[in-house]
Amino acid sequence: HDDLVEAEQTLQKIIEELHRQAQKTFSTVADEWEEYHEKSIQTYTQICYQAPVKDLKSEFGDCILKEITAINFQLFLERMASQNYAKQTIRLRKIVMKQIFDYAILKGYVTYNPVAVCKIPKKASSGKRTLPSDEDINIIKNHLDSMWGIYCNLLLYTGLRREEALALTYEDIDFRNDAIYVSKSLIFENGKSYIRNSLKSAASRRTVPLLKPLKNILDINGSGYLFTVKNNEPLVKWEFDKGFSKFREETGIKCTSHQLRHYFATLCFDAELDEKDVQDIMGHSKISLTKEIYTHIREERREKTAKKLNNFLNNA
Q1: Within a 10 A sphere around the Cβ of 200, how many other Cβ atoms?
Q2: How far apart are CA 269 and CA 285, in angstroms?
Q3: How is residue 131 annotated by DSSP?
Q4: Are 260 and 132 contacting, i.e. CB atoms less than 8 angstroms apart?
Q5: From CA 147, how far away is CA 247, in angstroms rounded?
């Protein structure tokens, strides 16, 4: 009899636990996933996931996880597309949602992942990369007497990501062999910054050519960080934001750091560099991204050519 009572109590506890798990909200599970996930991913990836998690919580936060269906999530993706969100922005929300549900399956909260059958809407914007204007490029090339002018020129002639450029020291530059060794990144976090000796992916650790226009403006006898405002320490977020914003305001340039990286890709395209070589220089983890950039440049050039021809014919 005692064994039967004990078995019934154990069964009841199991049922109560299953019921408790079944009532977990999306926000609760998303928080658990973040805590579990942050131990195994790069800080850069964590930062990229912050906005998607916020959007997903805003949409599904109070929903019982088990009650979220594929059609619920597909409608969310469709709505993002109708609001002209870029395809990559939508794709990132899907990636994060899938990972949260995979975690929930692992924990026994749900038995299937509804995200698996959802698709990125075809009408989603491709989010075309825009280049800096010719005016911006000319201004940047003529502002070589300030740290921020050098920062912009470095991005123009290396294609480095912002966090890679801000982590550079003169010791990373081999002036004799015209090479820049990219092996670390500067991470902004909670008002502070720190150097992380690992990058976005294995492909990000690379050697970039030190081109003559950049070599000519760098201090061959320099030491420590290229970009610093006090005691040779890495910049913190507010120092970067304030300094770069002031430079843009004073010079009138409109471009962003990422647009300058994209400009370097067009230099590679114009120099007819092979896509695989460009992938290595820019640190793309997949050749598909390099191909996508090259395709975009070709299409943009075709559009400009067609416009010039039409203007010529209209004025003829």
Answers
A1: 19
A2: 19
A3: P
A4: yes
A5: 9
Question: 180 exposed, middle or buried (CB, 10 Å; 0-12, 13-18, 19+)?
Answer: buried
Cα 135 to Cα 32, 149, 187, 252: the distances in Å are 48, 15, 31, 9
Residue 98 is encoded by which pair of tokens?
Answer: 């899938």
Q: How far apart are CA 188 and CA 95, in angstroms?
A: 24
Which H, E and C letters describe 7-58, residue by residue? HHHHHHHHHHHHHHHHCCEHHHHHHHHHHHHCCCCCHHHHHHHHHHHHHHHH
Distance (Å, rounded) from C-alpha 4 to C-alpha 8? 6
Edge-to-edge strand list for the sheet holding 206-209:
173-174, 179-182, 206-209
- H or E element: which one contains 193? strand 192-196
**What is the spatial distance between Cα 33 and Cα 76, in angstroms, rounded to a whole number?**
21
Determine the pLDDT at residue 101.
96
The pTM of the full predicted model, rounded to 2 decimals, is 0.65
- Nearest-angstrom CA–CA distance, 280 and 136: 27
pLDDT in tens, 23-71: 799 999 999 998 887 765 555 566 678 889 999 999 999 999 999 999 9
